[in-house]
Specification:
Pfam families: Robl_LC7. This is Roadblock/LC7 domain-containing protein. InterPro entries: Mycobact_SerProt_Inhib_Rv3364c, Roadblock/LAMTOR2_dom. It comes from Streptomyces pathocidini. The chain is of the alpha+beta class. The protein has one domain: Beta-Lactamase (2-Layer Sandwich).
Length: about 130
């Protein structure tokens, strides 16, 4: 299944100027699809995304409603921004972009893509010898 949704990711990149990389990853850090980067870069970002998902879930315990689910992770750097949002069961959508990107447009397009693809973004949980 890896790579079969690359063109959806490419479409998101075309819709939001200054987008650099778009990755669909499993919750355990496996690349499911990618656009705008090498496989090695995608795997590195997917590993980071897995860690971010885990850390942000832990931070949710300190929100007013302890069971709050993370809806968007944003890391801002001097020259760029990293976004990550849950895409479906056991997966996330991650985007990197230049610092001048339109945050509202990016969040909306990411949300639209997740809603549009729905179940296609699900990644089966791994275990008992199954591959994700």
């Amino acid at each position: 299944m890896t790579g079969e949704l690359d063109w959806f990711l490419e479409d998101l990149a075309k819709q939001v100027p200054q987008t650099r990389r778009v990755i669909w990853l499993s919750s355990d850090g496996l690349v499911r699809s990618q656009h705008g980067c090498t496989r090695e870069e995608a795997e590195h970002l997917a590993a980071i995304g897995s860690g971010l998902k885990s850390l942000s879930a832990g931070a949710g315990a300190f929100m007013p409603i302890a069971e709050s689910k993370v809806t968007l992770i944003v890391l801002a750097f001097e020259d760029g921004i990293l976004y990550q949002t849950p895409a479906a069961d056991n997966s996330s959508l991650m985007v990197t972009a230049d610092a001048g990107v339109d945050d509202g447009l990016m969040a909306q397009r990411m949300s639209d893509l997740v809603k549009r693809l729905g179940d296609h973004l699900k990644t089966p949980a791994r275990g008992d010898g199954q591959d994700a």
